[in-house]
Amino acid sequence: MALAGLRVIEMGQLIAGPFCGKTLGDFGADVVKIEPPGSGDPLRNWRLLQDGTSVWWQVQSRNKRSLALDLRASEGQDIARRLIAEADVLIENFRPGTLEAWGLGPDALHALNPGLVILRISGYGQTGPYRDLPGFGAIGEAMGGLRHLTAEPGRVPVRVGVSIGDTLAALHGALGILVALYHRKVHGGPGQVIDVALHEAVFNVMESLIPEYSAFGVVREPAGSALPGIAPSNAYPCTDGWVLVAGNGDSIFKRLMDAIGRPDLGQAPDLASNAGRVARVDEIDAAIAAWSREHSVQQVLDALAAARVPAGKVYTARDIAEDPHYRARDMLLSQTTRDGHTLEVPGIVPKLSGTPGAVRGSAPRLGDDTNAILAEAGLTADQIDLLRRKGVVQ
C-alpha cells in the first residue's frame, strides 16, 4: 500500500484529528491512536451505539491501533516521547498550548526527532488573537462563511447535516502531511509543523465569496437550494419527492427546455448564455417546476438522462445502501467489528489504480494494542505491568 511503513501517532479525539488519521490509515499507514485510560475517545459513545460502542467509531478508527495512555502523567509523557522519536507523523487537535504544557511542544519534539511532521488542528490556529478561544467545527463553519449561506432567504442558518468543518480541516491536514513528507523525502528538508484552523479550512472552499466582496462590495446571501449567479441549477418538486437539476450549460439548457416541452425558452436569444438566464431565473425555475411536479422522481430522472441533462434524486441512507452504483464502485464495504458484528461502512476514497486503500483492521477496543505498542517501544512486561497498576496505561 502507498503509505505502508509510515508511522503515525494520533493524539486527537472526536472528528478532525481522527478523520485525518483514518485517511492515512486507509492507505497503509500504521496509526497508533493514543486515548485516555478509562473513557477513551468520546466518539466511542457518540450517536447510535451497538453493544455500548458507537457504530461511527467503527468507521473513524478502522486501520488503527489503540494505546490507552494518560498523557497528563509524566510517565505517560515519557512514553509518548519514545513513540514519537520513532514516528514520521504526529496528529493532534488539542487546544493550542496543550502539548507545550506537557513538554511535548514542536521545539522539544523536533529536537528529539528532526524529521517529524506535526499536524496541529485547532479552532483558530496556533497564532492570532483568537488562538486560545475554544472552537468546534460548527463554529469554524460559522466564522468561515459557510453557515451564513446554508439557509433559505430570511430563515435561520442550518447545518449541512454532518460535521463538515471538522472533515474539511482533516482533509487539509492530510494534504499538508503528504506535502511535508514529500519535501522531506525529495528535498531533504526537516520535519515541519502544519497549522490548520477549522475556520480557515472552511474559508478555503468558499469560492468567490471574498473576491466578489472585494471587487463589487457584494455580500453573498443565502439562496436556499439555488446556485446564485448560475442558472438553472436548483431543486424541483415531483409527485413523490425532489430532484436536483443542473441545466446551466448553454447546450444543456437547450436540451433541458426541449425535454420539458419549452423549446421557446431554449431558443430564446437572450437565454443562450448564463448572464441572460440569470436575469430570468425565476421564470426558468417556474417552467421546470411546472413540468417536474407532474411527474415522479424516476420519470424526471429518466427523461433528463435521455436528454443528457445532469439530474439526481436526493439520496437518503436507504437510497445509498440500495444503489447499485455505490456497490459497483466498492463504496459500501462489509466490516466485522471486534465484537463480532457485521457492518456496512463507507468505502475508500480516493481510488488509486496501483496502490488502492483497504480496510486492514477493524476499530480497536480501548487499549487493545497497549501491550504490543509498549513492547515495540522497548518496555518490558514488568514495566508495563507497573504502569498499568499506576493507571498510566490500560
From TrEMBL:
Q: Which InterPro entries match?
A: CoA-transferase_III (IPR050509), CoA-Trfase_fam_III (IPR003673), CoA-Trfase_III_dom3_sf (IPR044855), CoA-Trfase_III_dom_1_sf (IPR023606)
Annotated Pfam families: CoA_transf_3
Q: Which GO terms describe its molecular function?
A: transferase activity
Instruction: Extract the coiled-coil ranges from the record.
Output: none
Q: Which UniProt keywords apply?
A: Transferase
Instruction: Give yes or no: UniProt keyword Cell division.
Output: no
Q: What is this protein called?
A: CoA transferase
